[in-house]
Amino acid sequence: YENTANAEEAKALLEKLFGGKALKSAIENEAAVENEIRGNLLKAGGAAFVPEDPKAFLPMKTVCDIILAAGGIPTYPFLADDAKGGYTDFEGDLEKVAKVLRERGFYSVEFITTRNDVQLLEKYASYLHEQGFVVTLGSEHNTPAMEPVELFARGGAPLSERLLQINYEGACVVAAHQHLVKQGLQGYVDANGVAAVDKRDEYIALGAQLIASV
């Protein structure tokens, strides 16, 4: 559509590609148009949709082993609440999901904050932090949309002081882990992926020193 002569021609082309559905976004809003292209063509029911083959995915342990071999910390990406306040079957029971994650060798989790209600986000992040997990908060910069670097919750809600502190402590652990692994020393997780949960505060302190020195 980028090579069409004018906006009307571009809209007509996209409507044809979308199977007769008109473009909802302003044609000059590239980020929104890209999202509509992805939603209409690549997602389930779209002309370019390809069903996932479970056989194409590596076993979870293999993925974790690759991360550990690279010096990283295996981290579970939390979806948490959706726009309607719902959760996936796996994440709906907070106590159960924390237990299962530990059993599967995950001691670190991350939330993409723009997806979540700030109060529900704080509830989940606080509980997991109190259970000994390293909790970090991330952003979603995977479209042309010029999103701010500063994190915020759904609807542009600012993060609470509690969330900011939890995220900072998580970042400190990651910084300390990277610093130690770079020197050939054992980081927060060992070669088998077992975390030094009882020493988390020591890693937070080391990470804070490293961050302050930058």
Q: How do the helices and strands line up, and which of them pair or pack?
A:
Layout: H1 7-17, H2 30-42, H3 60-69, E1 76-78, H4 94-103, E2 108-112, H5 118-130, E3 134-138, H6 161-182, H7 200-213
Parallel strand pairs: 1-2, 2-3
Helix pairs in contact: 6-7
Descriptive report:
The protein is elongated. With 214 residues, the protein is mainly alpha-helical. Strands 1-2-3 form a three-stranded parallel β-sheet. It is built from seven helices and three strands; from the N terminus they run αααβαβαβαα. It folds into two domains: 36 residues, no CATH class; 156 residues, no CATH class.
Q: What structural class do you assign from the helix and strand content?
A: mainly alpha
Q: Could you say how many structural domains there are in total?
A: 2
In whole angstroms, the N-to-C terminal distance is 45 Å
Strands side by side in the biggest sheet: 1-2-3
Record field, number of beta strands: 3
Count, helices: 7
Helix fraction, binned, reads 40-55%
Q: Kindly state the mean pLDDT as a whole number?
A: 93
Short summary:
By secondary structure, the chain is mainly alpha-helical. The chain is built from seven helices and three strands; from the N terminus they run αααβαβαβαα. The model has no long low-confidence stretch (mean pLDDT 93).
Task: Please tag this protein with its features.
mainly alpha; elongated; three-stranded parallel beta sheet; 43% helix; 214 residues; 2 domains
